[in-house]
Amino acid sequence: MEGSEEIVKKLRELLQQSEKRIREIPQEQLYVAVAVLIATFLFFLLIRLFKRTKSNTIILAGLSGSGKTLLFYQLRDGSSHQGTVTSMDPNEGTFVLHSESAKVGKIKPVHVIDVPGHSRLRTKLDEYLPQAAGLVFVVDALDFLPNCRGAAEYLYDILTKGSVVEKKIPVLILCNKTDKVTAHTKEFIRKQLEKELDKLRTSRTALSEADITNEFTLGVAGEPFSFPQCHNKVTVAESSGLTGEISHLEQFIREYVRP
Ligand SMILES: Nc1nc2c(ncn2[C@@H]2O[C@H](COP(=O)(O)OP(=O)(O)OP(=O)(O)O)[C@@H](O)[C@H]2O)c(=O)[nH]1
Ligand SMILES: [Mg+2]
Fold first, then answer.
1. What is the ipTM for the molecules in this complex?
2. Which residues pair with 173 in a beta bridge?
3. What is the DSSP letter of 195?
4. One digit per residue, pLDDT tens: the chain, 259 residues?
5. In Å, what is the CA distance from 79 to each residue of 59, 71, 72, 210, 224?
């Protein structure tokens, strides 16, 4: 009993001493100390929040038959398997890129989503876009001309979506199937798409002001459309899912999902 009373007494003395010391500190110094503490706390909180919101999702979109599923297999397994059939559901997976699997050390896995090109299944894209670090728009460079209008329409919808414009989601237009000599070049495809998007912009705005479903307008009014006018970065590259020539696709992924 006596021991505990002694301790309580000592504690009280200690408390009184520290109270006295705090009172001796000039008020400004105290305020500065508290402000520094709060600032440090907020700084670490922000870092945590920023880290958590950094996405590792890459979306593969594009018309049916452009080669998205084959590219997905190449990224994941480094092989084209036994070929593909038209997808009815999105393909989704989180993995370390096949080309990086031999690397030592910790490598950040990528979450890849392959959204089927069939028009009725495309609506799924809206669900995935808010979490995208980048979007790859796959174009069939072999059978490009008959599909140019359709590809441009799909791309127009993507480039005018609020989620893409506001979050400035980078877009890679990937001209696929370049293993065949008759495939069109990426410069040709870029120019054709720009022309087609320009036409679409005129026809869609002319439709009816009240009817416009697109959230944002494309490019700069009064100027012929070109990709650098977009708020988000749009680049063009070539690939072949069949032969596994996907280095530009991998470069794009690693630019926006850091290993
Ligand atoms: N020559 C050539 N053919 C390819 C290439 N990539 C895909 N193909 C062929 O194109 C066809 C369509 O490929 P998919 O990967 O299934 O196309 P997709 O974009 O997933 O199509 P959906 O699932 O319908 O949206 C298949 O017959 C592939 O073998 C390529 O790089 N070169
Ligand atoms: Mg598919």
1. 0.98
2. 137, 236
3. H
4. 667 899 999 999 999 998 888 888 888 888 899 999 999 999 998 887 766 567 899 999 999 999 999 999 999 999 988 778 898 999 999 999 999 988 888 889 999 999 999 988 898 999 999 999 999 999 999 999 999 999 999 999 999 999 999 999 999 999 999 999 999 999 999 999 999 999 998 888 766 455 556 668 888 888 999 999 999 999 999 999 999 999 999 999 999 998 8
5. 19, 9, 10, 48, 41
Does the beta carbon of 120 sit less than 6 angstroms from any atom of ligand 1? no
User: What contacts 19, CB < 8 A, 6 or more positions away?
Assistant: none
The pTM assigned to this predicted structure is 0.81
Strand partners, 91: 114
Listed in sequence order, the DSSP H helices in 54-185 are: 68-77, 125-128, 144-159, 162-166
- Strands annotated E in 183-227: none
- Per-residue tokens: 153: 């329409």
Q: What distance in Å separates the CA atoms of residue 85 and residue 90, rounded to the nearest whole number? A: 13
Q: How many CB atoms lie within 10 A of CB 209?
A: 7
The answer to whether the CB of 240 is under 6 A from ligand 1 is yes
**All domains of the chain in start order, with CATH:** 2-51 (no CATH), 55-256 (3.40.50.300)
Q: For residues 237 and 173, is the Cβ–Cβ distance under 8 A?
A: yes
Q: Using a CB cutoff of 5 Å, list residues around ligand 2, an ion.
A: 69, 87
* Residue 63 annotated as binding site: yes
Name the phi and psi angles at 121, rounded to 5: -95, -5
Q: How far, in Å, from the CA of 115 to the mean position of ligand 2?
A: 7
